[in-house]
Amino acid sequence: MAGGVIYKIVPESLWAEARAEGLFRGAAIDLTDGYIHFSTAAQARETADRHFAGQKGLLLVAVEGAALGDALKYEPSRGGDLFPHLYAHLPMGAVLWEKPLPLGPDGRHQFPEMA
Question: Mind telling me which InterPro entries this protein's record contains (predicted)?
Fold first, then answer.
């Protein structure tokens, strides 16, 4: 299950810092919890609705899960669903792409095509 594409919703400003440094250490919630929270394609929209509702200036970052090795664990979270958690910093080499996550007319984030 460690393979496949996983997704991180992140503020553009925080991602710009990570890009400059060459790795992503995590957002505040990640630093508090001790791992970087990710979502699968099927989980990303609900994550946006629950944790980022109405927020502007966000990016959706796609990451190759297989590139993260044993530091990536799928663990039960919301409703017992298995979520990808990274117990390490995210190297920029594992990032496939980053795309804006704008708010649509309905106030929900408009997602790009996901794998």
Answer: DUF952 (IPR009297)
